[in-house]
Design a protein that fits this description.
Layout (H helix, E strand, L loop, with lengths): L18 H23 L3 H24 L10 H11 L4 H24 L5 H23 L20
Helix pairs in contact: 1-2, 1-5, 2-3, 2-4, 2-5, 3-4, 4-5
Length: 165
């Protein structure tokens, strides 16, 4: 599907993605996360922010592909709703799924938008989002690969994980 003036959408729908692609997306998410913290160590929060966004985006695509069978929302569906649905399908409560989807939207807007493109970095505002990316990726990996989750996190069926504060 092409947009205005024959331009392709920024994120294409990949209907032929499979299990190997989910693993590749997670591998890339890990890589970008590691790179992000290298940039932070070097005092470069701008490129770190973009690497965090890349990590969260790849992890989210893996999550939605695994649990919804697609890696982009349908026309008219917001990313927030799409990601919430994926987390709920993976076993999170509605509240937790909504909070983690909000985290995805915050990373996209604040780290990708404000910090990387807007060149406006505020340690107290943006660093916590960067730090939480580790927890986000860990949660997505647990959900995708159904790793051991303590019983205290379980609720009738699939694993239940706490949401960000």
């Amino acid at each position: 599907m092409c947009g205005r003036a024959g331009l392709k959408p920024m994120v294409a729908v990949h209907e032929d993605l499979g299990e190997a692609d989910v693993e590749k997306l997670i591998s890339m998410a890990r890589f970008y996360l590691a790179e992000a913290f290298k940039h932070l160590e070097r005092g470069d929060p701008y490129d770190a922010a973009e690497k965090i966004w890349a990590s969260v985006k790849h992890a989210t695509r893996a999550l939605t592909l695994r649990f919804l069978g697609e890696d982009t929302p349908s026309p008219g569906e917001t990313w927030r709703t799409f990601v919430t649905r994926a987390f709920m399908r993976a076993g999170l409560s509605s509240d937790d799924a909504s909070r983690w989807a909000a985290y995805f939207v915050d990373v996209r807007g604040k780290l990708h938008g404000e910090v990387f493109y807007g060149l406006m970095y505020e340690e107290g505002e943006h660093r916590p989002l960067m730090e939480k990316a580790r927890e986000y990726l860990e949660l997505v990996e647990k959900l995708i690969f159904q790793l051991h989750v303590p019983d205290s996190y379980r609720h009738e069926g699939p694993p239940h994980h706490s949401a960000p504060p």
